[in-house]
Design brief:
The structure holds 2 protein chains of 2 kinds. Chain A is of the alpha/beta class. Helices cover about 35% and strands about 30% of the residues of chain A. In chain A, helix 3 crosses helix 4 and helix 3 packs parallel to helix 5. Classes of the chains: A alpha/beta, B mainly alpha.
Chain lengths: ~325, ~260
Amino acid sequence: MAEPVLVVKNLTKIYRSRRGDIVAVDNVSFRVYKNEVVGLLGPNGAGKTTIIKSICTILRPTAGEIWVDGADAIRNPRAALEKVAAVLEGNRNVYWRLTVKDNLEFFAGLQGQSLRSVRSYIDELIEMFNLKEKVHEQARALSRGMQQKLAVACALVKRTPILLLDEPTLGLDVETSYELRWILKRMAERGERTILLSSHDMNVVQDICERVIIINHGRIVVDDKIENLKRLFTASAYRFEIEGHFNQTQEQKLKEQFDLIKISRDSSRTVIEAELLDGQKVYEIIDVLKENGCRLESVGKQYPDLEEIFLRIVKGEKR
Amino acid sequence: MRHLYLLKAMMKKNFLIIWRYPFNLTAGIISIMMIFLVIFYGAQWLGGGSPNFGNTLEGIVMGFMLWMFIIFAFSDLTWDFINEAQQGTLEQLYMSPLGFGWVSVSYILSFLVINLTLTLGLFMLMMAVTGKWLHLDFFSLIPLMLLTVWGVYGFGFAMGGLALVFKQVQAVFQIFQFVWVALVIAASALETFPWAKFLPVTWGVHLIGRVLIGGQSLYSMPWTDIAFLAAVSGTYFGLGYLIFKRLEGIARDRGLLGHY
């Protein structure tokens, strides 16, 4: 694998207040490799934004190290900022009274780039983000989706090798979300940037990212390739369809013996979803169902999507 | 060179934003002129006047112009930090690899050009309306105005830092408007209270008075007078910047840069 361009080592952030300390990030370590697209997932308050803000130096961590393409982001933030750009709160990252072009030119200048050196790239971004017709419109007159696309373009115009995106598709309509996703995916496929992306939208992460880091209560719960996670969960997730319904006692008995994910019913059948790390348990469930007089309609492996995997991990059902 | 590109980008952005709020700009100019005329004609009606320039009508024209320039300078960083935090762009400014210090200085320089143009334009208008023409030696006036306002930017930085941490600083801000009035007036009492020249802006206002009312040129002034102004302003600027850096560190620790 290529060399890591982002190294986060034992990162800890504690917010101190009179009411007590709040540990937002607790000893987090991970690496992101060149041209990788990594998703940072976690429930609200898990510490995703704290990690992203620490990497882009606007938040000072309590302990730990952050290396951005060889630059020490804590001791030498300016060197790190040569290598990283971020979109932090979607459409709130641009100047509403400036036009699309003015915004792009300003953010290029903020990075210390001359207008001459960046002009053709600005045109390329306008084309790529489908903003050509709106190039002379003030950002306040754009739709939320366009503002968000502009915010991402303003981060890209800095031409840093690493891009951090905090909830880039939040509040977007389906069409714009797909469009932004497609742009990011294309960039990832071309190997143009290394991207660390936090999102609540599992479809976005599943679609764009190769690897996912799941954070819960400030700690990393999982750091693995999405494919591996899917394989792992597919290998252990089973679905049993039973004709009719069974009673409370039978249900209780099953729950006590096995690691069940869900029991659902419709008018004529019951569906049991179970997490069975040991394949032998499949036969044991069938035996229990047989003993209770249940008629099995089908047994099969379940193919969970990232959202289900995420929920199971966060709920502590899987490690 | 990269610093110049940032400065250029900042100037363009700030000019465009001011230009795109025409009502704000026009209303500001009209209200300043109205306040000035009330003060000027009120003083004339009361019949005030003494050889001391602080109490003369010429002194009022000059004092008001300088107070306006000082207020503009003082408020720039504070309001802009607040505005940028509200817009969500402050964190982006902070992420410039050229440093937030240079971003702030670029901010100051771009607004300095705007403020100086606006102040001198309004000053001409005030003189034309009141018929009180002062000695307009721009080669002496502008360097002295810039040196005087240098110290004010220290206070602007300190207030900007307070705004980053505490957000609601409008009350302190209002109080300072009166403090600046007192300091401008204090320049006329330097003979009685010589220690007052160590206060921010008073010595600068005194020297500007010598140009505008006394007709003296910068080049005929003892260099020690100008060096003293530079030292006082530089000290206040340095102190203000240190306070700002300390408060900025607190804002970074607490993650307050993007909040309002």
